[in-house]
Protein: Fumarylacetoacetate hydrolase family protein
Amino acid sequence: MAVSLAGLLPDDWHMGNFLGRIDLGDGPVPVLIADGALHDLTPSSASVSGAIERGHTTPQHGRRIADLDARDPQLPDGATLLAPIDLQCIKAAGVTFAVSAIERVIEERARGDASQAAAIRGRLEERVGSGIRAVVPGSPEAAELKRALIEDGMWSQYLEVAIGPDAEVFTKSPVLSGVGHGAPIGVRSDSSWNNPEPEIVLAVSSRGETVGAMLGNDVNLRDFEGRSALLLGKAKDNTASCALGPFIRLFDDDFTIDDVRSADVGLTIEGTDGFRLTGTSRMSEISRDPLDIAAQAMSEHHYPDGFVLFLGTLFAPTQDRDVVGGGFTHKIGDRVTIASPRLGTLANTVTTSKNAPIWEIGISVFVRDLVRRGLADRI
Structure:
C-alpha cells in the first residue's frame, strides 16, 4: 500500500527541495523530493549525511523513481518513511526560550513533583517573568539581572543558560536512533511527569554550514530532570524518544534561515481518553538566534558526518489533565502532531520506551547493509 504524503509535506512542497530517507524493502535509501518527483540519491550518495557533505542534493545527483501527484503525492508501494537523517550526531539546545527557562526552574524547585508546580510557577512569573524576557543572553543587562536574582535568592543553573553567554547544548540521542513520522515515540515507563517538545531542528554540515531544517519532538521527562540536572541524559535519551521529520527542507532562494526565525510550530495532543491540548511555539520569541546556537554547538568540535540541532521550544504544557493542579503528562496512546506551514507535519503515537520497537540498526548494521548492497563506497 502506498504511503500518502498529503498533509505531511507543506502546501508549497512543489516549490521546495526535501531530503529524506525511505525503505523500499531492501534497506534505507536517501531520497530527494524536487521538481514534482521523488529521486533516489544512491547513484551518488548512499547516505543522507554523505549527500549533504558532497552537495549531492539536486535531482541531477539521483535517479527519478516516481512522479508525485500534485494533489496526493505518494511514496512507492511498500515504501516506509524513515527519520530523514542517518550518520549525523543528534544535538539539542535547551532553555532557549524564556518560558522554558521558567519551567526548568519550576522542575528544579519542585524536585520533579508536578503537584507543586502551579504555586512555584506563579511566584517565579511574578519575580522574573518580565525581566527574563527583556534581556539579551550574555549582555550587560543580563549580567545585572543575574546579580539581582542572586541577591534575591532566585538564581538557578537554568537561568544561567537562559540569559548567560553560553547556551545549553547536549547530545540528545545516539547516531541512527531517531524515529520518523508515524513511528511510536517513547517515554520511560517509570516517569510520571513528562511532555513532548515541538521544535525546529537544523541540519548542519561538517563545515558548520546550516543547510536546512525539519521538525522534531525532543521528548522530555520533567520528573527526572527536575530531581537533578545530572539526570538530563536519563531524561532525554531513551529508546524512541527522538522523533524527526518528515523531511529536511533544504535552504534555497525561497526558504532560508529567516523562515526558521519567523516560523510558528503548532502542537496537538489527542488522548484516547478524549483529552485534547493545543499550543504554539513561536520562533520569533527565541532568546538566542538559531545560527548562534548552531555555532555554539559546533564550538571546538568536528563532526565529520555533520550534525542536527534541536533549537528548543517555547511550549511547556501546563494544562491539567486528570486533577486540578496536577498539570500535564503523557498517557499511552496519545497522538502527538507537530506542524509548521513550511516544514510539514510530524505525527507519532506515545508508548513506553520499554515497549517501543527495539533499536537495532546501529552503525555496524548500517555499514554492513551498505556493503551487502555494494554501496559502501558511497557513504
Summary: Residues 89-96+168-360 form a domain with the Fumarylacetoacetate hydrolase; domain 2 fold (CATH 3.90.850.10). The CA atoms of residues 259 and 339 lie 14 Å apart. The two ends are 29 Å apart (CA to CA).
